[in-house]
Structure formats: structure tokens, C-alpha cells
Amino acid sequence: MLVLTRKLGESIAIDDHIKIVVVQIKGKQVRLGIKAPKETKIHREEVYMAIQEQNKEAITASPASLQDVSKAIKG
Length: 75
Known about the structure:
The protein has helices at 45-59, 63-74, and strands at 11-14, 18-26, 29-35. The chain has 75 residues and is α+β, with helices and mostly antiparallel strands. It has two domains: 1-37, no CATH class; 43-75. It has a three-stranded antiparallel sheet with strand order 1-2-3, with no helix packed on it. A hairpin with a 2-residue loop joins strand 2 (18-26) and strand 3 (29-35). The radius of gyration is 20 Å and the shape is elongated.
């Protein structure tokens, strides 16, 4: 892991397309701004982990539950 120190208004560049800027420092919280291409997916870690869990559940869905979904879609 690379650890960097940045002050308010300073930034970090990742490749040529992503820039992370320290926007605000308030107590123990740091507000970051992220400039990246629209196709770059950016999530808070807890949201990312929830998405990953949902994807795992979808992959391991039982055939019966898939049939239920299919019937619901068909109306």
C-alpha cells in the first residue's frame, strides 16, 4: 500500500485519467473529490462490498428461485 500525505487542496494523480483532491478536512474526517472518466466505477467500500455480495448470491441462485424470477418476468 502506498501511503501519501496531502494537505487541503492538494491532489493525487492515478494514471492520466484519475485525480483525487482533498476538498475538506473536518476533525477526523477528510472529504475527497474524485475526477475520473464516466465509465470508471467509484464506490465507498461498504457499497462495493454489498454489490459483490449481491453478485455472489445471484451466481449461486438455486434453479427453483431462477424459475420464480422467470415466471415473474413473463407476467
